[in-house]
């Protein structure tokens, strides 16, 4: 039947052995096209370093710094690219900033999804590439704080998290979370569990996927808003492949 719900096989467990690991090897640019891309990266990094170092973003027209979450988004989000490109000097100065300046104790609300994919994901990728404990320690600290998002009655994450206070809530403009956001964090939380050996991160994120699979759908499609209190989609909400339904 087209309306039949897919069976959820809870008997298959993927075992992860952190001792079986081969560090990826990147050799840097090998041709003119790649060298041009690397130079473009260096150009952007130099501009960011000169005008907005430590801030989230650089505004390219005004040359002014801007902050969204005050977590050095550009540094953390770009560092794995620098590593792949073989830019050791860039990687080391970014790593040093993370070591000395990246803290999660500020009394400030951040978007759960964006911080997960950009900061948590960035830290975990750099740990995967280098096996440097610094990145994993920072990721665990951040992951512990982001777990507040799962404190809703349904387990569907709230959209906003105060990292310093370890509290979470729905956005001021709505009671709902974005469907794309709550179902696009499973990769990072799974990797955090497997790298740290603590299963709570993966279990919380996997439970969201389980719930989404069990909810009624329209031709297999779902609305873009879901209520973290009830665990149900917003009735008659938009269904789209665009924003809030994309990733």
UniProtKB/TrEMBL annotation:
Catalytic activity as recorded in UniProt: N(4)-(alpha-D-Man-(1->2)-alpha-D-Man-(1->2)-alpha-D-Man-(1->3)-[alpha-D-Man-(1->3)-[alpha-D-Man-(1->2)-alpha-D-Man-(1->6)]-alpha-D-Man-(1->6)]-beta-D-Man-(1->4)-beta-D-GlcNAc-(1->4)-beta-D-GlcNAc)-L-asparaginyl-[protein] (N-glucan mannose isomer 8A1,2,3B1,3) + 3 H2O = N(4)-(alpha-D-Man-(1->3)-[alpha-D-Man-(1->3)-[alpha-D-Man-(1->6)]-alpha-D-Man-(1->6)]-beta-D-Man-(1->4)-beta-D-GlcNAc-(1->4)-beta-D-GlcNAc)-L-asparaginyl-[protein] (N-glucan mannose isomer 5A1,2) + 3 beta-D-mannose; N(4)-(alpha-D-Man-(1->2)-alpha-D-Man-(1->2)-alpha-D-Man-(1->3)-[alpha-D-Man-(1->2)-alpha-D-Man-(1->3)-[alpha-D-Man-(1->2)-alpha-D-Man-(1->6)]-alpha-D-Man-(1->6)]-beta-D-Man-(1->4)-beta-D-GlcNAc-(1->4)-beta-D-GlcNAc)-L-asparaginyl-[protein] (N-glucan mannose isomer 9A1,2,3B1,2,3) + 4 H2O = N(4)-(alpha-D-Man-(1->3)-[alpha-D-Man-(1->3)-[alpha-D-Man-(1->6)]-alpha-D-Man-(1->6)]-beta-D-Man-(1->4)-beta-D-GlcNAc-(1->4)-beta-D-GlcNAc)-L-asparaginyl-[protein] (N-glucan mannose isomer 5A1,2) + 4 beta-D-mannose
Entries under PANTHER family matching the protein: ENDOPLASMIC RETICULUM MANNOSYL-OLIGOSACCHARIDE 1,2-ALPHA-MANNOSIDASE (PTHR11742:SF55), MANNOSYL-OLIGOSACCHARIDE ALPHA-1,2-MANNOSIDASE-RELATED (PTHR11742)
Keyword Hydrolase: yes
Enzyme class: hydrolase
InterPro entries noted in UniProt: 6hp_glycosidase-like_sf, Glyco_hydro_47, Glycosyl_Hydrolase_47, Seven-hairpin_glycosidases
Any one Gene Ontology BP term: carbohydrate metabolic process
Molecular function as annotated in GO: calcium ion binding; mannosyl-oligosaccharide 1,2-alpha-mannosidase activity
Known pathway: Protein modification; protein glycosylation
Keywords in alphabetical order: Calcium, Disulfide bond, Glycosidase, Hydrolase, Metal-binding
Protein known as: alpha-1,2-Mannosidase
Cofactor: Ca(2+)
Statement: the UniProt record of this protein carries the keyword Calcium: yes
Protein family: Belongs to the glycosyl hydrolase 47 family.
EC number: 3.2.1.-
Pfam family, one: Glyco_hydro_47
GO CC term (a single one): endoplasmic reticulum
């Amino acid at each position: 039947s087209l309306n039949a719900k897919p069976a959820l096989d809870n008997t298959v467990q993927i075992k992860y052995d952190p001792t079986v690991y081969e560090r990826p090897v990147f050799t840097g640019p090998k041709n003119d096209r790649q060298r041009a891309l690397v130079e473009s990266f260096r150009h952007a990094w130099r501009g960011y370093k000169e005008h907005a170092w430590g801030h989230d973003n650089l505004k390219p027209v005004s040359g002014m710094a801007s902050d969204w979450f005050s977590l050095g988004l550009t540094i953390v989000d770009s560092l794995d690219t620098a590593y792949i490109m073989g830019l050791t000097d860039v990687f080391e100065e970014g790593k040093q900033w993370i070591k000395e300046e990246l803290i999660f104790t500020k009394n400030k609300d951040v978007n759960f999804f964006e911080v997960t994919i950009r900061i948590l994901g960035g830290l975990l990728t750099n740990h995967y590439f280098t096996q440097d404990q610094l990145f994993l320690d920072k990721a665990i600290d951040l992951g512990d704080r982001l777990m507040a998002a799962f404190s809703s009655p349904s387990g569907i994450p709230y959209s906003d998290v105060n990292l310093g206070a370890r509290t979470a809530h729905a956005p001021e403009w709505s009671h709902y979370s974005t469907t794309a956001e709550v179902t696009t964090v499973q990769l990072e939380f799974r990797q955090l569990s497997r790298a740290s050996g603590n299963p709570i991160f993966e279990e919380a994120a996997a439970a969201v996927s389980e719930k989404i699979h069990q909810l009624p759908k329209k031709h297999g499609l779902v609305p873009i808003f879901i209520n973290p209190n009830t665990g149900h989609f917003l009735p008659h909400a938009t269904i789209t492949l665009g924003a809030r339904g994309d990733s």
